[in-house]
Amino acid sequence: MFCKNCGRELVGAPSYCPHCGAKVQENVVETGGGKSKTASILLAVFLAFWTWLYTYRRDAWKFWVGLGLAIFSIILAIATAGFSLVFSWVFGLGVWVWAIMDTATKKDEWYRSYS
Prior knowledge:
Strand content: under 5%
Number of strands: 2
Order of helices and strands: EHEHHHH
Helix content: 55-70%
Structural class: mainly alpha
Number of helices: 5
Number of domains: 2
Strand order of the largest sheet: 1-2
């Protein structure tokens, strides 16, 4: 069972979400249309941090961190006339691996309960 407000897993049968304080009776999603874990993983493999737009309500901060690191690495490469291109690739590779690992390690239930 997951909180509809914050997306975190609820253990037991709490009246309020221990993470965000939302009332559980109004915010629990157990089944529904949800999202596809397979689609999310494929988006991560081919588009890196852009996969978090697929689950934006729960992963918005991850998208913005990934976009910020991408912009930072581009500015760094331009400012150093390409001398820091290796660092740019390291940032890009790190965010890409993070996106794949994040989407692949989430339980299927997390995606099914997404609304």
